[in-house]
């Protein structure tokens, strides 16, 4: 993309470029603020410093190409480039720290001793954590963490990008980072099409009842003739995963409550028994279940998959929720009982809200399992109840592989899980808080 | 309001008694304190009264009605838990309103009552805070308010002040006492703090080892303990207990010291020991007065000033240390020999074998 012949795809050049700019623009403002300047100046200077290092990295890679050829090991040149450009940015930052003049106009230091902070420390902090040097190192660490986290997101980002690529862009080699986004992939995913010959294309172009999707397809010489199976598969996935999640969490909650609060005869054995359903990989029993389901008429039905997923998730949800309910002191309910509530009311109004963290966590895990399950869905469904996981790979099919459509399919498949997790994150993060149970 | 009667109420966990058969009548409007060391069965007793714990034997009557097997919610009792058991997912206001909602009160009534009770407890400013963010004292107030708001027939309170610091405990103690006087509500109050029990109780039930040791007014349990346990447990320090041998009107203490028992006691002691036998002499620190020509010799072991008075620790020989109260001006060097006398009206005697107090035939 820069027209330089380098052993790394463009993507990685961009990645490291962003990395250095991020490092520079987070580390430098700390220094500038400390010296009494506006941190915005720091961000600009830091970004410039980062950009310099990024350029150095790119040039180094190009320059080291002969060396890599010589050593017959492209990795060496990459590593050398990284190390050298890291040294460059650190040197630049050190230079900034050393030679940026103190601002005269910012008034006296809040704390007069040498090296003190600019502003009074009005929050709880250890002395060494207020030191600007330490803080810029901290900013640096944060940048590294962010970029590493970003690295793990790259497949997802790549998928999202591919979903909006045209066919030539999607199969281009080397892969393209910069491209013209198009909805072609998404329309391909959602529709059934037929190829048109040139006469038909001309005829279609003359029509004025075409919507935007038709026009997109027409560009590649196809006409939309109906909705694709994908929408149906996604709906099946939603129905099956949603219902089985609700079922396994609510049944698990009741069972966990009973195990936690009542004297259940053989409690330990029962709990072990429940857990034992997890002791062999579920796939082992696909054949027997397949035969059973065919006999029972559950093959390729929503009910069949819902029952199966609920059964698998139940052991998990009972165990997880029991732990959370055990943590709720029994006095909470007893207080409600004395105050005139029935046990069921106490359960609904006290136990459930207090266990909300556990319920949220269990919901997310159960949903993810049911949503992503592949093997059973593949074996036990054909069409009516087929879910998205076995459907997406089948789109590869024969002939031209519509990468953009597949990426779009995977992207949409991701969305419900993200929504569920995001909606429940408040409860997941809240941790278990105990109200006014006093300590000893 | 209500009377509470326990008739031979007992609770066993497995084969172990948590509460041995217990008889107690709490009169209408009375403030009864269950006092005892940790693990003696106080909480279990309260839980049985409230119906949270099924009895193993006996009967519980509320206003004369047998409620032994009635549900907690049907007993019209409010319980303040040892650990307040405030709901962390509700604000203080919602916590207080919670019992009223169970009764299906109208919304305005609920709001009015919550406001009334929070004004009474001076806690209006914390009503919209969640329990997690409240101080110990305010949590305490919310727990009390939750009990008070319902106007129940009786209150059961399980060490409600245990979590508070000494200073604040005193304030809350006065507040609860004041509330009790205003509302005249039958209350059973649990504590392991004998000072609290003395200060608050109309009557005190002293418990130990799952058993009731004595039931009486604070003055009774203080001055006339029924046995050695109560004598030691009540008061700080507890009653001085000095073993000796009783021979015809005179108690022979360690190292040749003697104490002539008050004339009023002689007949009953003669009867108890048949003229000659071991006894334990008991007296409170304030019953001993140090004087020049007093009867019993001792040496000063230590002294400490308690603000208003000085506590003398005296060694009687045989490593028996007794405590005596003197004026705050009194100064004694350590190891000085001193002599002291006992107020004849304030001495008590115990049988070392049974540990029970000896009852005087004619009280002096
Ligand atoms: N659910 C239970 N199962 C078995 N034993 C119990 C149970 N609850 C209490 N006990 C036992 O009964 C005895 C009395 O307990 P209780 O809680 O009534 O004591 P307490 O007087 O309230 O003590 P504390 O001052 O520490 O609160 C203790 O020995 C305790 O171990
Ligand atoms: Mg207790």
Model description:
Chain A is an all-alpha fold and 440 residues long. Chain A folds into three domains: 10-152, no CATH class; 183-228, no CATH class; 231-433, MetI-like fold. Helices cover 69% and strands 2% of the residues of chain A. Chain A contains 18 helices and two strands. Chain A has a two-stranded antiparallel sheet with strand order 1-2. In chain A, helix 1 (10-34) packs antiparallel against helix 4 and helix 9 (229-261) packs parallel to helix 12 (302-326). The radius of gyration of chain A is 30 Å and the shape is flat. The model of chain A is unreliable at 1-7 and 432-440 (pLDDT under 50). By secondary structure, chain B is an alpha+beta fold. Chain B folds into two domains: 4-232, Rossmann fold, CATH 3.40.50.300; 238-350, Beta Barrel (OB fold (Dihydrolipoamide Acetyltransferase, E2P)). Helices cover 25% and strands 33% of the residues of chain B. Chain B is built from nine helices and 20 strands. Chain B has helices at residues 42-50, 92-102, 107-120, 136-148, 166-183, 194-200, 218-223, 228-233, 266-273; strands at 4-13, 16-26, 31-35, 57-62, 65-66, 77-80, 154-158, 186-191, 203-208, 211-216, 240-247, 250-252, 258-260, 276-283, 288-290, 296-305, 309-315, 321-327, 337-342, 347-350. In chain B, the strands form four sheets. Chain B has a six-stranded mixed β-sheet with strand order 6-7-8-3-9-10, sandwiched between helices. In chain B, strands 13-12-11-14-20 form a five-stranded antiparallel β-sheet. In chain B, a hairpin with a 2-residue loop joins strand 9 and strand 10 (211-216). In chain B, helix 2 (92-102) packs parallel to helix 4 (136-148). The longest helix of chain B is centred in the middle third of the chain and has 18 residues, at 166-183. The two termini of chain B are 39 Å apart. Chain A binds chain B through residues 329, 331-332, 334-342, 345, 349-350, 353-354, 356, 433-438, and chain B through 50-52, 71-73, 75, 77-79, 81-90, 98-99, 102-103, 130-132, 134, 136, 139, 142-143, 146, 150, 162-163. Magnesium ion (MG) binds next to helix 1 of chain B. Residues 42-43, 82, 158 of chain B line the site of magnesium ion.
